[in-house]
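Contributing new records

If you add data, match the layout below exactly. Sequence lines come first and carry their own label; structure lines follow with theirs. Keep one chain per record. Anything else will be rejected by the validation script.
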Amino acid sequence: ALALAAALLAADGTGAGGEPGTITLVTGEDVTGAGLYQQLVDEWNADRADGVRAELIEISGGADLVRAELLRWTQAEGFSYDILNIDNQWTAEFARNGWIEPLPEDVGASGVLEPSVEAVTYRDTVWARPFIADVGLLYYRADLMREDDLVGGWADALELLRETAEAEGVDYGYSGQFAPYEGLTVNTLEFTYGMRGSGGDSEPPVAFAADSGRAAVDLMARALADGTVHPGVLADGATEYDSFRQFVDGEVVAMRNWPGWYDQLARDPAVEPAAGGGEQPPQEAGEPDGGGDAIEFGVAPLPSESVLGGQSLAVGSASRHPDAVWDLISHLTAPAQQRRLLYCGGYPPVLADAYTGPIEGECPEPLAPDEAPAEATVQSRRGEEYSRLLLAEVGNAHHRPTSPYYARYSHVLYSELNRLFRRSQGELADGDLETLDNNLEEALQGR
C-alpha cells in the first residue's frame, strides 16, 4: 500500500517530484505476467512528441482488493488520477459518486460488441471505453467425451458429466466457482440464465425463491449433494485456480473457467489441447511434453449464456490532461492493440473485427521460433474454432445487474448462498430463499 501511495502521488504531479506532464493509468494486475499492458503503454509513450508520458500502476490481488484500493484513493484528499481500468460491474458505483467522466462523443464506442457497451451504461450514459471482455467457458476432457455430447441445458450437461465420471473412474463430474466470493455470484447468474432460456436480462436478478432462480439454485444444491460437483469448490478461499488444479489433476471431467486459463492448461505438462486446437504455447524449460499420458482438453460454450466479465477504461474526474488521456485510451482500444491482447495474452477483445486478422508488433515474450505460427494472425495462436467461440460467447453474454450498489448485492448473494449450500442435503428451504431475496432487494437499493 505504501509503495502504491508513493507511485500515485508522484505520478499525480501534486506530490514531491511530480511531473505535470505525467498521466496515470491505474489497473489491476496484468494476469499474463509478461508485461503486455506495460508494452502497450510504452509504445504510446514512444510516439508522443509533446512530452506527456503515461505511467502504468498495477494493483496486485483479486478484484475485491483492487476495488477497495481504488475506492480508498478516490476519496483521499488532494489525490487525482487520470485513467482507471475498472471491472465493468463497478461502473455505476463510480459514475454515481462522480469519480469518473462520461465517454465523449468523439471517442465513442463504435465497433464495440453490444454487451460490453451495455455493461458500462448507467442512466442512459456510457461512462467508460470497453477495453477487454471475459466470458465463462466449459473446459472438458476431450479424451473422455465429445463436444457433440454436450447438448441441452445445465441439467443435461451435469448428468452427462456425472455419468462420464462414473464410467471413466473420475472422482467428480464438474468444477466451478462456488466459494463465498464474486465467482459464486457469476456462476449462480449463469445457471439462472440457463433456466430462463432466452429471457436473459429481462427478468429481475433477485428472484431465487421462485421460477428460474429457484430452479437454478436447486440444481446447484443437488449437484453438490450427489457428488456431481467437486466438494472443494465450496471451501473458503477456493478460486478459479482451484478449479484449474482439480481439472489438471484429473479429479473432474469438466470445469467452468475464464479464457485466461486456456494458456495455463496448454502450458501444463499434464495437459494438452485436443487435435485442431491451434498452436500450443511453449513449455517451460525442462518440462516434459506430456506424451500419451497427458489429459486432452477441449473448449465448449457453457450450457447457458455467460456472465460478461472484463474491464473498461474510465477517466477520473480530477484528470488535468483530458486530451492526452483520451488519446491513450483510443490507442489501447484500437483494433491492432485489441488483436495483440488476444494473441499475446489471451484477453478477449471488445471489438468484433479484432477476432481475426494479422498481428502487428511483437509480444512481450515472443513464441520460440519452432513454435511460432508461420503467419501471426489472431486465429493462428489457438485455432480458428477457439476465436469463433470467444466471439460468439462475448457477443451473447449478459452483464451483471447495473447498480451503484452492485458490490453489496454480490456480497449478500455469494455469502448467504454459499452458507445455504454448505448445510444443504440437496434441498433448499423456502424460507431461506425468501430471506435471501429480501436481502438482495435491499442491497440493490443501498440498504
